[in-house]
Write a structure and sequence with these properties.
Layout lengths: L27 H7 L4 E4 L8 H10 L3 E10 L14 E6 L3 H16 L10
Parallel strand pairs: 1-2
Antiparallel strand pairs: 2-3
């Protein structure tokens, strides 16, 4: 991989995205430094479990942490006599503290209003 200070990952999954993440949080700051990446966004699927650890370790390494989350969005109604279409994954990034608080609220809704289904918002 070549070094390019203009490139910033905006959709990175850690080990907290089960079966999706390949990057270990402990290795992420060093990887970003080696690749001359000034910032990176952590967007685990349907959770913010790593947000604090990621923010602290990235900041300590001089890498700008961008907090985000990939959530599943139920976007279509169930057709008559049909099956519910699968939700679409979308990535949301927090631009400010208010944005982070909104991500926390959405994340809570994923699990509190699941009604026995996989986590998703509509």
């Amino acid at each position: 991989m070549t070094k390019n200070a203009q490139f910033i990952h905006l959709r990175l999954h850690s080990e907290y995205s089960l079966l999706e993440g390949a990057m270990r949080l402990k290795k992420l700051p060093d990887f970003c430094q080696n690749m001359a990446m000034p910032a990176v966004a952590l967007t685990d699927s349907n959770n913010l479990f790593a947000a604090l650890e990621f923010s602290v370790s990235a900041s300590a390494a001089g890498v700008q942490p961008i907090l985000g989350c990939q959530i599943d969005l139920a976007y279509a109604p169930v057709p008559l006599g049909g099956r519910k279409p699968p939700p679409a994954p979308i990535v949301l990034l927090a631009q400010s503290e208010t944005g982070y608080e909104n991500l926390l609220k959405l994340n809570s809704c994923l699990y509190l209003k699941a009604d026995g289904e996989l986590p998703q918002v509509s």
